[in-house]
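tool=predict chain=A
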Amino acid sequence: MPSTFSSLSYHLVFSTKLRQALLTVEIRPRVYEYIGGLIRAEGGSLTQIGGVADHVHLLLKLKPTHTVADFVRVLKANSSKWINDEGRLDGRFAWQEGYSVFTVSQSQVETVRQYLQRQEAHHATRSLADELQQLCERHGFDFDPRSLE
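tool=predict ok
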């Protein structure tokens, strides 16, 4: 077969170091734009981004040649460097180690996209730990709240 066809969508979640509320409403749009640019530069495509002050959600498509771990490492390293270089925060910005990633079937892309658009309202009543526990259960594995420490 001369061509490779793929549709690999992922829901990626990662938080600020120590889950500090550093992604303020004022800086979030610029951070999201920058992350979107990083994704495009690495050959992926961003479908939706959303989050709150202490974490970010991405719905993105990757090529089959990408490894999720390498892709996330590049995103987190370059975006934290950019945030620090911008000097918009007091102190040093860093992402927390680790991340959560879930595959998304094409039939659920729109549902996940809308979910990411409503993160502010969603987190008015639900914590990140509760959210990740539910996502993990939906995807068939156990969630350990200690993983957020």
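The mean pLDDT is 89. The CA atoms of residues 7 and 139 lie 19 Å apart.
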